[in-house]
Amino acid sequence: MKRRTLLASALVLTAGLFAAPAFAAFPEKPVTVICPWTAGGGTDVLLRALSKEAEKFLGQTINVVNQTGGAGAIGHNAIRTARPDGYTVGMITFELNSLPPQGLVPFTWKDFDPLMRINSDPAALTVKADAPYSTVRGFMDYAKAHPGEITIGNSAPGSVWHIAAGLAAEKTGVTVKHVPFDGAQPAVTALVGGHIKAVAVSVAEVRSQVQAKNLKILGVMSSERDKIFPDVPTFKEQGVDVQFYTWRGLALPKGVPAANKAKILDAYKKAFETKDFQEFAAKASLNLSYQDSAEFAKFLDQNFKDVSAVMKNLGLAKK
Question: Is residue 5 one of the residues assigned to a domain?
Answer without folding.
Answer: no
